[in-house]
Amino acid sequence: MTSQSLDSFKARKTLKVGKKSYEIFSLKAAEKNGLEGASRLPFSLKVLLENLLRFEDGRTVTADDIKAMVGWLKDKRSDREIAFRPARVLMQDFTGVPAVVDLAAMRDATTKLGGDPEKINPQVPVDLVIDHSVMVDAFGTKMAFSQNVELEYKRNGERYEFLRWGQEAFDNFRVVPPGTGICHQVNLEYLAQTVWTRKDKVKTKKGKETVEFAYPDTLVGTDSHTTMVNGLAVLGWGVGGIEAEAAMLGQPISMLIPEVIGFKLTGKLNEGVTATDLVLTVVEMLRKKGVVGKFVEFYGPGLSNMTLEDRATIANMGPEYGATCGFFPVDAEAIDYLEATGRKSARIELVEEYAKEQGLFRTNKTPDPEFTDTLELDMETVVPSISGPKRPQDRIALDTAPEAFALSMEKEWDKLAELDKRVEVEGRDHDLGNGDVVIAAITSCTNTSNPSVLIGAGLLARNAREKGLEVKPWVKTSLAPGSKVVTDYLEKAGLQKDLDKLGFNLVGYGCTTCIGNSGPLPPEISDAVSKNDLVACSVLSGNRNFEGRVNPDVRANYLASPPLVVAYAIAGSMKINLTKDPIGYTKKGKPVYLKDIWPSTKEITDLIRKSISKKMFKDRYGNVFEGDENWQGIKVEGSLTYDWPMSSTYVQNPPYFEGMKMEPEPVTDIENARVIGLFLDSITTDHISPAGSIMEKSPAGKYLSEHQISRAEFNSYGSRRGNHQVMMRGTFANIRIKNQMVPGVEGGYTKHQPSGDEMSIYDAAMRYKDEGVPLVVFAGKEYGTGSSRDWAAKGTTLLGIRAVIAESFERIHRSNLVGMGVLPLVFTGEDSWKSLKLDGTETVTIKGLSEGLKPRMTLEAEISYPGTKKKKKVVPLLCRIDTEDELEYYKNGGILHYVLRNLAA
């Protein structure tokens, strides 16, 4: 729990709650003892300050780091890097499998080193929720859920068998089985505690005693929408796999003390306006403001007019407005939510008492914290809205939606002249046209955690049925709730029947349409769209609508509230103005308007009170880790180490620890390395890391074909993240990456030297490996921008690349490279690979590694040009190993090796 050995600000105190006593690190005491102004900090920074006080050890956290937190108040920004240790880690299955693979590989390596494999466990609690593998194949029937579950287990059997083993084998590691819910909603409704506790042995005057510490619940997650739990005053955000693994293994996460943008909310939402309309407005405002890499903290009297679920809806979309997190403090509403969702009474009492003691409890009388900058929204000005056709921040007022679609037809697709084009659908008695809605999905964590919009959608469906309205026959409808509690209250309210009648049957509990798991359109609809080049639309209640993400047949994607998803399914087209035009007609031909079937706020609120109970949460989460008969039917050996199936194409033992000894080998200079890539500016982790579908002729596709996997069973790189053989073949294999060693060629190609043979980067790397030749990559500015992706660094090291030499790095990818034992180097002065006139035929020697390597020291690269006319050139390079901890990781061959040696010792 704590590596704390110092207490420079005399912060450690005892807090009595009821009959129990807890050890805390008091912010009030620290303020009295040298941290003047701590009480004026934003709530989110107070959480970071407490974390530093608790982990002060003079090395990873110093007294100066802690002082820098209150020093932030001077300019409301800081360039100080701090070490943050979250209380726990949350994973979803796509990104969680590689982490469990690494843990299993570490156990094997420990055994080979003569150590005890039982010592290899997560050092902080880890919860992995299997929620990213369900696809909407079946829909619109009572059998949709069971059919989709059957297909899910068939596709993912190897991965699930592995995770089932991990569930049994590791301490501090829990798996929420498939078909339970979305990780963020399970986190909000059950896993999160707002205040975390842990028993620890500490030195006292009497010797070693076990005491219970209380501290803010914090986390990092391997999904960008981990931010959702910020709505419950839990500080957390999404990170890449390597940072998550580091946190899981008790290592600190390095971060800058962030700027904090205060977002003041006043007033309350008007009748007919939903939380989704509010969040789309917030996303638009914050994108305009520019909050990338910053914390956003919500404050103001408007918070008292918001439910906890409305706050979670806003917090969920932190990645869409670009912030690290969107934080809401503890207040009476948070306490009520913990009570309503069945948390234990002792925990609820602790949360309230701890938050009040620490100055972390908000009321309408609480003075506003000091912020870097602020903006304000009167919620009474929010109007019904959607966002699209391809970015969450492109908000459209509902009453202008048809005009906005027409504008997109002109600007995005140059098809305004074809706006009213319609074609016959083969084998069906209806036609299809531009602007028709072919997918209407109530999906994703954003809104399915919010009863007001789900009950609202159900009531709208009921009212529509009473008027005789039906969904258009070309619409693929789906309902994928974030937890089983949603099903319970929709059924108790009698609304699931109404949704079923309109085709919104349960398809699964998981992340579906937002991540492209919308499943295929019916073949005749797909053919009509593709053969006639139609601009088909989707309307989804999720958070992501990027181009090409939802479904390959659908070009225009709109985010909307669940009631509007149902409304658009009935209307069937984006060209209908739902605020003025009829949404449909009764059997007698009478027009029906949206206002005729839209439920009132009072109707929704009354039904929520009657339909949702604390017992539902207690019943559903009482056995949340047990799973259904499919999960329980997976037989696994109760072994400490994993029996890797040689034939598996999903899970393989990675080679990180081959030949590893208890003492690390001395670091050696990089001699006569070959260049495998010359890249320009802004090479992103999406360019480097394997993602999306696997092409048949790619190295990964050839590997799967050689293992008798048919093209139809390739699945995606995401689903095969547990197999390094697939992933290393997909590294630098993006179809849009441009290696300047092969000018004019797109994709992951290079030239092997000195032969000059053109081939895939993977094939060249393996040839160099056979020849015993080390590799380097050269790049321009901002190398590794974009989302943190662990395989961008893992794949780099497995290809045999020992150093990346760039003009500048994105911060997280730089640290990930160090974490995988790859040396990041930066040109000094005006140098670049272009100014050095490199073409990839050169050899590179980097000296200074073997003697006294220090953080941020200057090293020398000796570049030898081919032929005799050009002389060697010596170029100074800044070593971007930035801290002593990073140096230890690098000397050990990576963070996993460093931790493994420490645990095995």
From TrEMBL:
Domain Aconitase A/isopropylmalate dehydratase small subunit swivel: 702-828
CDD domains documented for this protein: AcnA_IRP, AcnA_IRP_Swivel
Superkingdom field: Bacteria
One of the GO biological process terms: tricarboxylic acid cycle
EC number: 4.2.1.3
Catalyzed reactions per annotation: (2S,3R)-3-hydroxybutane-1,2,3-tricarboxylate = 2-methyl-cis-aconitate + H2O; citrate = D-threo-isocitrate
Pfam families per record: Aconitase, Aconitase_C
Keywords: 4Fe-4S, Iron, Iron-sulfur, Lyase, Metal-binding, RNA-binding, Tricarboxylic acid cycle
Pathway(s) it belongs to: Organic acid metabolism; propanoate degradation; Carbohydrate metabolism; tricarboxylic acid cycle; isocitrate from oxaloacetate: step 2/2
Domain Aconitase/3-isopropylmalate dehydratase large subunit alpha/beta/alpha: 78-572
GO terms for MF: 2-methylisocitrate dehydratase activity; 4 iron, 4 sulfur cluster binding; aconitate hydratase activity; metal ion binding; RNA binding
Protein's UniProt keywords contain rRNA-binding: no
Family stated for the protein in its record: Belongs to the aconitase/IPM isomerase family.
UniProt function note: Involved in the catabolism of short chain fatty acids (SCFA) via the tricarboxylic acid (TCA)(acetyl degradation route) and probably the 2-methylcitrate cycle I (propionate degradation route). Catalyzes the reversible isomerization of citrate to isocitrate via cis-aconitate. Could catalyze the hydration of 2-methyl-cis-aconitate to yield (2R,3S)-2-methylisocitrate. The apo form of AcnA functions as a RNA-binding regulatory protein.
Record text on subunit structure and interactions: Monomer.
NCBIfam families: aconitase_1 (TIGR01341), PRK09277.1 (NF006757), PRK12881.1 (NF009520)
Protein's name according to its UniProt entry: Aconitate hydratase
Name of the coding gene: acnA
